[in-house]
Design brief:
The chain is mainly alpha-helical and 317 residues long. Helices cover 70% and strands 1% of the residues. The protein is built from 13 helices and 2 strands. It has helices at residues 16-39, 45-66, 78-98, 104-111, 114-126, 132-149, 158-183, 191-212, 223-250, 253-259, 262-274, 281-297, 302-305; strands spanning 5-6, 312-313. It has a two-stranded parallel sheet with strand order 1-2. α8 packs across α9 (223-250). The relative contact order is 0.23.
Length: 317
């Protein structure tokens, strides 16, 4: 990954099907934040993440086996797969532990700095060049997310800043995992195998984190908590994460990543219906900003799609 490479999908516009699929993924991920909060009284965060990965791994094997994926074939993907797995595991440790120090609203805003890291990394690693219009779209969408979640509290202390930094670190690792999946031989692996590396590697990392932080389940979880854990393992990680990596391998990583700005907006709507939070005109304005930003990011741009002359062709790596 030392030299930028021209990826065939770098300038490929998102199809209507890809856009619809991304909207479904963002809806799921927005609700997932609510699911995690609902389970917290019964299962601590690191144990939640560990159980989620353990439950998702057999799902990936079942889906992949049905599709004829050769999980144990030697194809040169194990090294980038291990790297992606390490980042995947540490990403969730940082995010869940960061939430112990900072507020949820600040965490969501900082977590969705990930598309900026993807855009910067895509230029260096994948040769996905964003033009001025695309950068403006990213900024407008991020402003919409910040407006929807609310202006961060001005009175912060060292612990809050530490939590903010941990969330940003998680966002950076999320972006880095996307770039590894797109810019290495891992892009040739089936989505189930690419994600399988990450889920399998994350289990000992998350389990160790749960042990270090002294987490334990002190009582029998409620049926709702069990159902929501199954939702996280089977649908969120086992299915939607697989679909995400399939899209990453087929389309522009930076443009796909921009769509994740919608996730916290869905989370706010979900909180309104499930937790009875209040919606305001501010949310409507925020939604307009996010949609406008996504339109700008996905607007065809000759500058964004133009490859550099000296770039290596992906088939020669």
């Amino acid at each position: 990954m030392s030299s930028p490479q021209t990826i065939p999908s770098a300038g490929r516009p998102l199809s209507a099907g890809a856009i619809a699929l991304m909207l479904m993924l963002c809806l799921t991920w927005g609700f997932n934040q609510i699911a995690v909060k609902l389970v917290l009284p019964d299962i601590p965060p690191m144990l939640q993440a560990t159980i989620r990965s353990m439950g998702a791994l057999p799902v990936l094997f079942i889906i992949g086996t049905f599709r004829g994926v050769k999980f144990f074939e030697r194809d040169g993907t194990w090294k980038p797969g291990l790297v992606a797995g390490l980042m995947f595991g540490i990403e969730f440790v940082l995010i869940f532990q960061g939430l112990r120090f900072t507020s949820a609203s600040r965490a969501v805003v900082f977590l969705y700095t990930a598309p900026f890291f993807v855009a910067l990394g895509s230029y260096q690693v994948l040769a996905e060049r964003l033009g001025g219009t695309q950068w403006l779209g990213l900024a407008v969408s991020f402003a919409g997310v910040a407006l929807a979640i609310g202006v961060p509290q001005p009175d912060v202390d060292a612990k809050v800043l530490l939590g903010d930094l941990m969330i940003v670190g998680g966002a950076a690792l999320w972006a880095a995992t996307t770039l590894v999946a797109k810019g290495t031989r891992l892009r040739f692996a089936a989505p189930e195998k690419a994600l399988g590396y990450q889920v399998a590697t994350s289990i000992p990392i998350l389990g160790l984190a749960a042990f270090v932080f002294g987490e334990s389940i002190t009582h029998t979880p409620a049926p709702l908590s069990v159902a929501l854990m199954a939702f996280q393992a089977i649908w969120v990680v086992g299915t939607t994460f697989t679909l995400w990596f399939a899209l990453v391998m087929a389309y522009s990583a930076s443009k796909l990543s921009a769509f994740t700005f919608i996730t916290p907006l869905f989370g706010v709507v979900g909180s309104y219906f499930i937790m009875h939070d209040t919606l305001s005109l501010t949310f409507g304005a925020a939604a307009v900003l996010v949609i406008a930003g996504l339109f700008l990011v996905n607007r065809p741009s000759s500058t964004a799609a133009a490859p550099r002359d000296a770039l290596l062709n992906v088939t020669k790596t």
